[in-house]
């Protein structure tokens, strides 16, 4: 049974791109913690279409709802932990690296300006809108995870096998670095 891989980092840093590339390269299954959370949002009556749903008013409303109801995040994390321990998956998750042992854990670092730049291209937003969204999502998620699990998201990175600074690198360059690491640890 092969190990599982977790890709984490702040919003819009390139987690999905790296995770999908690793899954394809190593024949692993790709899972998104955000997609599992969106399934729970749909059960609550939200319409979660589009990759940029989290950045829209309805996604922000759900984010605010999560601050008062930890049930959503608990369900997602329990499901992701179960899948992680079965092996053979690449998972994007904000929380999982702090909640599981073993596997391969990669943190994608970079400036919020870099994330906002990626978001302007991906979601057709202005630089100002994108930066505001990145900052808000980062701070709100950080607060949720501190209250829920007691860790400081994005600060104590000692749980990671590798930290890749994405600033100044193309998506292909980041993926190449991640592939080399996973090849050596898988």
CATH architecture: 3-Layer(aba) Sandwich
The radius of gyration computed from the alpha-carbon positions, rounded to a whole number of angstroms, is 16 Å
Q: Helical element count?
A: 8
Shape: globular
Number of domains: 1
- The SSE order reads EHEHHHEHEHHEH
CATH superfamily (homologous) name: P-loop containing nucleotide triphosphate hydrolases
Largest sheet: 5 strands, parallel
Classify the helix fraction into a percent range. 55-70%
Description:
With 186 residues, the protein is α/β, with parallel strands linked by helices. Helix 6 packs across helix 7. It contains 8 helices and 5 strands. Strands 2-3-1-4-5 form a 5-stranded parallel β-sheet, sandwiched between helices. The mean pLDDT is 88. The longest helix has 23 residues, at 127-149. It has a single domain, classed as Rossmann fold.
Summary of the model, kept short:
With 186 residues, this protein is an alpha/beta fold. The chain has helices at 15-26, 33-43, 57-68, 71-86, 96-99, 112-123, 127-149, 171-185, and strands at residues 5-9, 29-32, 89-92, 104-109, 162-165. The chain has eight helices and five strands.
């Amino acid at each position: 049974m092969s190990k599982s891989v977790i890709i984490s980092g702040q919003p819009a840093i390139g987690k999905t791109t790296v995770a999908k590339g690793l899954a394809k390269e190593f024949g692993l299954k790709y899972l998104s913690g955000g997609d599992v959370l969106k399934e729970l949002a749909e059960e609550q009556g939200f319409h979660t279409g589009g990759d940029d749903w989290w950045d829209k008013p309805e996604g922000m409303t759900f984010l605010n709802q999560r601050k008062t109801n930890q049930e959503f995040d608990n369900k997602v994390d329990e499901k992701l932990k179960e899948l992680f321990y079965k092996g053979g998956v690449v998972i994007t998750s904000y929380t999982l690296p702090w909640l599981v042992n073993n596997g391969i854990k990669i943190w994608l670092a970079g400036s919020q300006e870099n994330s906002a730049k990626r978001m302007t291209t991906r979601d057709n937003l202005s630089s100002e809108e994108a930066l505001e969204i990145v900052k808000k999502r980062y701070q709100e998620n950080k607060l949720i995870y501190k209250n829920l699990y007691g860790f400081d998201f994005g600060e104590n990175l000692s749980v990671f096998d590798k930290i890749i600074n994405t600033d100044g690198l193309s998506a292909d360059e980041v993926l190449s670095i991640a592939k080399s690491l996973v090849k050596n640890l898988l």
